[in-house]
Amino acid sequence: MRSGVKVAIVGGVFVVVASGVGYGGYNLWSGISGGAETTSRSAPQEKRSGPVTGEEVTNTAEEFLAAWAAGEPERAGQATNNPVEAGPAVINHREGAKVSRAVITPGAAVGARVPFTVSATVTYEGRSKPWTYASELTVVRGLSTGRPLVDWKPSVIHPKLTKGATLRTGEAETAAVKAVDRRGVELTPEKYPSLGPVLDQLRERYGDRAGGEPGIETWIESAGGTAPATTLLTLAAGKPGELRTTLDAGVQAAAERAVKRYAGASVVAIKPSTGEIRAVANNRADGFNAALEGRQAPGSTMKIVSAAMMLERGLVDGPSSTVECPSTVDWDGRTFHNLDDFSLPSGTTLQRAFARSCNTTFIKPVKPLGAEAGTALGDTARTYFGIGLEWKTGVVSQDGSVPPSTGIETAASYIGQGRITMNALNIASITATAKNGSFRQPIIVAKELDGRELAEAEPLPGSVGKTLRELMRAAARGEGTGARAMAGVGGDKGAKTGSAEVDAAASSNSWFAGFADDLAAAAAVESGGHGGDAAGPIVASVLKAR
Q1: Burial call 397-406: b when 16+ CB within 10 Å, e when fewer
Q2: What is the residue-averaged pLDDT of the chain?
Q3: Count of CB atoms situated within 10 Å of the CB of 316
Q4: Which pTM does this prediction carry?
């Protein structure tokens, strides 16, 4: 029997208690019987191959979890395929998180996966609080030994742990903040789940400026402290300071509801006249804030910028300009198509071609620019829309990118493909700039809070801004590709649809940009298909909440 470990049958459940350690117990599946001793397998065994068996899964999970609960990191590590990382992680759970007791209860194995529940007590400076969470492990066969082992990942210890991150309990490094919207309504991750990472960042950046006092917490500290801490448990609440944001609780609530319709959806809403961010929402299993940090081709929503470039360079001179919209156009040996190879008749106007999202209209006139075509779009994006400048929103956000291009990438750029990358924030800002006539860098907290400098861009030439608004209004009504999605939106409204092809994906990503009065929004839905089908209803729902 292992030193300091007692084994007993309690209520029909096999229990291992680490005596003298004051740390934990381990509940195995009910009905296990036999000897009252658990030992590591030490007898020489023939190297096995093939999938792990049910018995191997059960025994390996038992060995690892019992060692963890008993506070034996070396033995727990040896039950995994990465003892160098697993052992210290087990120690960190006990010593870093200040876990004074832990009972680990496995559930029924599902193939090679074993779910389990950790019911722990965290104790720090006389304060104790229960901490319960669920995780799982997977058993695999060791490559060199053939022995069944726990496939080591930090998430085995806690589902939110990532490589290099650690658990800590103590006085929080920054005070809690009570984030409120522009009218003083409190914003919590429980009510607005998409704001979880945003609120964490606001606390990290501005907690010491909000006038609060730190509490006692258990949190995840990222590798090198490069990301905001993730609070897991509060033992003693501090005094939160109040932090006013530019968000609008009503618009945020609408955004939260809207993204739930589609997995992989994200949306951002902005007030065009000020650049104030009114809502940020995502629906992703991985928790990634794609709305602010994503980098994807924006598809035909980029035609807002393409139209601005064509107007600025004199390639067209207004909504009534006559343009061509053939079903296809060739560029350096590649044929670019309209959706379903549609075409519009001779004498078509720019306004109609934009409303119908004709790809060839935005490729064919650009080719005579020669090499300049590869930089013209980026110049317009940077000069008038602030794309390519450094945005300081108040939280982590990814700037849009329109890099110089050559060959067929140039043609692809004008319809939002190629190497162009955007997210919902970037496209919402482009839409807001078109509506307002000038760029206002998006912000989520006032610049006066930390004195940061905001990016600035030149106002759109008057005729260019006026034409962009007319084009977008046409796309939101009649035969416009955004008309169906925007049908229930009132006020002065405009739209642009987009769908972006992704390598190896069965369906394109759905994009939609729209404005209504002094609110602009953009949404993206991964593998959502046409822009008006998935992203469009999301944007419309957000605009209706203004």
Answers
A1: bbbbebeebe
A2: 90
A3: 20
A4: 0.74
